[in-house]
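forwarding from the other thread:

> can someone predict this with protoporphyrin IX containing FE?

sure thing
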Amino acid sequence: TNSSSTVYEQLGGASKVSEIVDNFVWEIEYDEQILPYFEGANIDRFKQKLSEQICVVTNGPCEYTGDTMQQVHTGMNITEHHFNRTVDLLINAMNKANVPHPLQNKVLKGLAPTRKDMLYL
Ligand code: HEM
């Protein structure tokens, strides 16, 4: 990997991020544990805001314009189990998008700090 470029560039930029996010939504759609949380959610908005967030945590040229993780996930009573399951679905999504594992780890490391802002709220 090229240490002078951002993780976002190493991933392949906007088109790869949108491929990951599309795959992730498919994974959720086929997961009977996680899908119920998304009943009534605005999926187009979810895709757009999650793409921005992944772009930001990989040092891409984006700004996050969504609500805070705490605002969004409050009232869902997300458990450790469901959080971990959702991370697994994101890993599946990145595998299907052929994202190399060292890069997957960088994406996950960027998102990991959000965990404390969504569990048991
Ligand atoms: C890595 C962990 C996660 C990240 C980075 C993440 C990120 C996001 C983002 C960026 C949004 C859109 C915010 C907005 O619309 O302003 C969102 C919405 C949502 N998230 Fe998460 N999320 C995570 C984990 C979870 C988990 C574990 C669940 C439930 C099991 C969940 C359920 C939802 C739902 C249902 C919405 C849509 C809310 C709505 O449109 O009404 N998320 N999430």
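Residues 34, 37-38, 41-42, 45-46, 49-50, 53, 66-67, 72-73, 76, 78, 82-83, 86-87, 111, 114, 118 surround protoporphyrin IX containing FE (CB under 6 Å). thats all i got for now
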